[in-house]
Amino acid sequence: MSAELNVSLSGQGYNEEGVPGVNLLHVQERYGEERAKRLRADGNSQFIEPSLDGKFKSFLGDPWIDPSTIQDAETMFPDNRCQLLILGAGWGGLLFAIRMVQAGLSPSDIRIVDTAGGWGGTWYWNRYPGLTCDIESYCYLPLLEETGYIPKHRYSSGEEIREYANFAAQQWGLTDSAVFQTKAEEMVWDEEQKEWQVELTQKCQEIESKALTVRANFVATVNGVLNWPKLPSIPGLSDYRGAIFHSSRWNYTVTGGTSADPSLAKLKGKRVAIIGTGATAVQIIPHLARWAEHVYVVQRTPSAVDEQEQWETNRVWFEKEVASSQGWQRERLRNFHHHFTTKEQPTINLVGDKWTSAVTMAAVSGNKAGPKSIDELPSYLETLHRLDAPRQDRIRKRVEAVVEDPITARNLQAWCPTWCKRPVFHDEYLKTFNCKNVTLVDTGGKGLDRITVDSIVSGDNSYPVDLIICATGFRAPFVGSPAEKANMTIIGTNGVSMSDEWGRSGPSTQHGVLDANFPNLFLSGPWQAALSPNNLFNIDVLAKHAAYILAQAKAKAGGHPFVVATTAAAAEDWGTQILTRSAPLMAIFGCTPSYFNGEGGIDRIPPDSQVVMARSGLWGHGIEDFGNMRGIEVHM
What we know:
This protein is an alpha/beta fold and 636 residues long. Among the domains are: 69-225 and 476-566, FAD/NAD(P)-binding domain (3-Layer(bba) Sandwich); 231-303 and 421-470, FAD/NAD(P)-binding domain, CATH 3.50.50. α20 packs across α21. It is globular. The two termini are 39 Å apart.
């Protein structure tokens, strides 16, 4: 499909139509050339998943575990049961628990299990130097009005976000609801008892590993989108004899420093290779350059790195200009989302960040102003490219202005539309390549050729290194069902396997929160729901919706046992509504390979499967329109 969707801009004279100085035909040709460098038949299979390959499980160790915080799972389930079991103790799981408490559930009726040793999810695991959220904190940190918390900076550090998660757990009495270092292995719906039977395994240092079976009236799968690290499948990776780790398991015993004080003193005199130039690596590399003898930055595809513009929060300004009225955070988020459209932008920009200038991210988050059918798609793509070209051109010129070496500058310029890769924001990254101890190893889109016992090899060049850091991301968030996201088995009514059913026909949900084949199971998206660059907002919409549904069902049951489920007819209708709004999201076809499009695999999906994919996908009119659907926004 991608070939048909690549818009032709020749002969249109766009330079005279609002894009001065940008040759859109040339830009399109360069986009195609760069995309071709990254295309490969193996798609997501080009990566190694340590959670599925025992040979690499050492990459999954928990460097942060505090045994004193771990409670014995057996003691946490009186009578081996609970009313609500939440899978995931990240911010998503916290939001589901908090919204359920606000809807009337007691914290003592809730149990939250996670393989981690504490709260935070991705913010628990990721503690690398320079870690900062790329969404402004006044939008990203949830519940600011409820807690009265004032973020320390415009963009919060990972340390602050994790501490705030602990604070929120305490505020809503959930500290004693957590069952850490515990994994759900299998869930089976018991039709007779109208409840879930769940097999759990707890593995931790201070408690003997054990398996237990618990029963839960309700379950919520909130397993996160960045939870299973992936490694590059480079020949010789397992042969390397130096120190090596994934960025989500940062080893401060090797580098020196801590997550609170990233003074990487142990890197003095060391040669370091970091594989990757995405959002994570962009934050790490300036810190490596300050301490290491030499840093080799291994790049396949450059990121479009815009300015961040960080600052400390001034309390007086925050209270007067930001949190000045009731409902301020919801209104700020609404204003943020309304910038992702190809139609008129809001006259007032409450956030004023570089995200709100990336309007063509509407191509992946949804756009009510987008095409209503595939026939309108070519015209829509022209509009996207015309709107996007000035931004990407400005960012490429920023590289030229900052990076002194012209060859390095050229290799750091991103040649793909904004919507094909998550935008990146940093004020120090590009300057780092002016340091004499930093070398960009640009691999022309194909990655390293091999790794030896002591070196990385690209083409004819070999670089001896003492440490390799894999900033290579995580399992693609849009691949598989909630069962795959959790590395577990989920069996619903009539013995239906979620993995099999979703793999064959896709989900059968209503509003993305309840699947007709899996009663009393609340889902957290993104399938058949909506998307925003701010993922916590996505999850909170569904958390509020799930809590409302459960509270209403409980009230109607009047104290009698009850089951929460959608009908097959309602699920079919919702799938049709998703399908009819899918056209605006088809701009992702033809993109440079990334986790957005399954490393290019989306382009190879057969036509009949594309219909299932579109029906299974996102609400194509954006998250605000999704929230305005009858029955969703009404109770938010």
